[in-house]
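The following record pairs a protein chain with its ligand, adenosine-5'-triphosphate.
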Amino acid sequence: MIGELQLDLARMRAARPDFGPVLMGRVVACDGGLIEVEGLPLPVGSLGAIAQEGAGECLAEVIGFRAGHSLMMLLGDAVLLRPRAMVRALGQPGEVRVGEGLLGRAVDALGAPIDGGPPLHLPHAWPLAGAREGALERARVTEPFDCGVRAINALATMGVGQRLGIIAGSGVGKSVLVDTIAAHGAADVTVVALIGERAREVSDFVARHMAGARRGAMVVVAVPADHAPNLRLRAAQYAASIAEYFRARGQRVLLILDSLTRVAHAARELGLVLGEPGAARGYPPSALAAVTRLVERAGNSARSGGAVTGVYTVLADGDDANDPVVDTARAILDGHIVLSRALASRGHYPAIDVPASLSRVMDDLVAPEIAAAARRLRALIAAREDNRDLVLMGAYRPGGDALLDEALALSGAIDAFLTQPRGAAVRLDEAQAGLLALLGKAHA
Ligand SMILES: Nc1ncnc2c1ncn2[C@@H]1O[C@H](COP(=O)(O)OP(=O)(O)OP(=O)(O)O)[C@@H](O)[C@H]1O
Ligand SMILES: [Mg+2]
């Protein structure tokens, strides 16, 4: 009994309630999703609660200010807002709550559970935008990361602390591929951010993974497509904050974001609402900067020894590889996997376009003979793809090109090596042994 009371007392002491005056403001204008509030001088990123006609309060976020008025955006659906409605400041600006309690749970952008479970008790605060670190605080990528996908493990080996993009048009298999990596990637904690995806996919993902073996080591942050843009951006930042929190505790985190393009879309909507001019494909500079900042939060930490390995899906709109988000992602990521619609339509899954995919860290991570074998297999695959039409038409005569001859002789074995049944895992050493065995066959 006394023990329980002491615990309660300790909890109260730790809570440090704020007895200061509560800041209140009033709505003075509302147009195009932007709400102007007077008398509420809060920093950008703070939350506020707006009183609604007869229906409690709704949440909004400060996204800017102009002429002494705060500009806010609703975090929920459109509501019955009236002029001069009261706005109340909420919580600590720019901070989110994190803690061990997130493991095994699925939450929304504000940290509320969406899995029907009990409320979360999260004791630690973490900056939503991330704690900025010096460039030298980032340790190098020196260890291979086993992602469970044979073609990637063997031909574009990932590293612990690497940031990898998965680039493809819609419906080519990005989500299925990251699903496999989430289930089989070797990590202490897996944080999955499902941003702007279909609500059905979110519930499907949560149902499957939260019942699986990884349950106690996985956190899902999800905001489906129909939610406000600032919620989508916030959810991506929240997921990065959760990953950083576990990294600071020395753990190896796998951070998966599906999809980075939807985050860029959300940032674009926010920028345009604030009146920023759109540049490349309507993306204001701030939207692409938001993407860069988000991706830069992954990496190894020299101080804690922990790591955040990032996997980001990027939608190449209309299979156009010159999309600004694709360009930005390619430039800042340490590697990309390109999925090909042609392979997918042939039923070749995962539809990884090997010659177009690249891991910039691979050569530092694997033994020289593996790197050489991977280069050789890439050359064989490229030769086969380049001459595919010629061979199909029967216009190619064997003996004309030694590389192509070898590729054609191994064709069946190469396809068997590159494909993998959905949901299955192939470990890194198994994939590398398979690679050597496959090329060994050519010389046997
Ligand atoms: N490894 C696989 N094995 C079998 N089928 C697959 C595989 N990967 C993808 N598919 C098929 O492709 C479909 C689309 O895949 P997925 O949802 O992953 O695409 P996506 O690139 O995420 O699309 P979007 O951009 O629309 O989100 C799946 O529903 C499935 O039928
Ligand atoms: Mg998808």
